[in-house]
Amino acid sequence: MTQPLRIALAGLGTVGVGLVKILQNQRDLITARAGREVVLVAVSARSRSKDRGVDLSGFAWEDDPVALARRDDIDLFVEVMGGEDGPAKAATEAALTAGHSVVTANKAMLARHGTALATLAEAQGAQLRFEAGVAGGIPVVKALTEGMAGNVMTRVIGVMNGTCNYILTEMEQTGGDYGDILTDAQRLGYAEADPTFDVGGFDAAQKLALLTATAFGTQVDYDAMEIEGIEKVTLTDIRYAMDMGYRIKLLGVASRTDTGVEQRMQPCLVPAESSLGQLESVTNMVVLDGDGSGRTAFLGPGAGEGPTAAAVMADVVDIARGAQVPAFGVPVAQLAAPVPAKVQTPAPYYLRLSLADQPGALARVAAALGQAHISIDRM
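Predicted structure:
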């Protein structure tokens, strides 16, 4: 008889609780799809007494996530605590060192330490999976490492942060200014009390760094990313964009070029009638370009208990089945050293200027742009 896959879970916040619910409510379905039973053995979180709305009485408790990761009665360590370093990284390293495979939703940790952690996993014969760390419930990592494994990927583009998309959508639809909409997003739980990580573009940039490494077979290179958030986007910008037939989206773009890999995260004008332009609220969308597959698009909820926990569960089921897939699609030794490239492709930009109402002001602007070899498409 096939032995159960025994899981330890570190983190009982939104995603961790969502995973417990799936394991409790979908036990028969998971067993059928995994080919064996998947059993939660032990858990760890900051507070043992907190009411989380799920029954945890049947699981062993560890106050220390590192001790949880080292338990000898587990096969798989699931990390959903978050944090670039600290307990999350220490526990993940401990699990891999013990030969336990790891499933994580922690994009911040992987954006900084992904290559090193993948190296450790391979050395110990363990798996490292992170579908939930990129675009929530959208299975884009699996698409790259499996469904599109026969393609040479040329570009990744997408809206990867639901908070920013919600703010920009609401500004356009309600006419509210950035500060008011951000307050609403915090009240609804779409934005943190300190929203800098989301609205500054850093959350989405970490996701893009992981997709870039997976798509192009390179080591993770988050520091090479050009990042600009949405803090400076005003209602005036949004209205002018609408007048021209565009919408403003925080867009991540990674491209393979002759000189290296371009990565950037910045507000962009996208045609209002395009798929990206039609994207509203907290929905994410990732578009992949490959030589054989052409262009494929993936759309779905980018965060939340259900979608993110479902993505974690998908990785768990794969490991239960015995699937052996390198973290970034190819063995670490074959990941190319990152060669960052500045944006080379000429592209249109939107400029908004306030000019004095006097003769020659506009002519001087046109002359300055001309001297910089910038042509004016429309004014």
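Summary: The radius of gyration is 23 Å.
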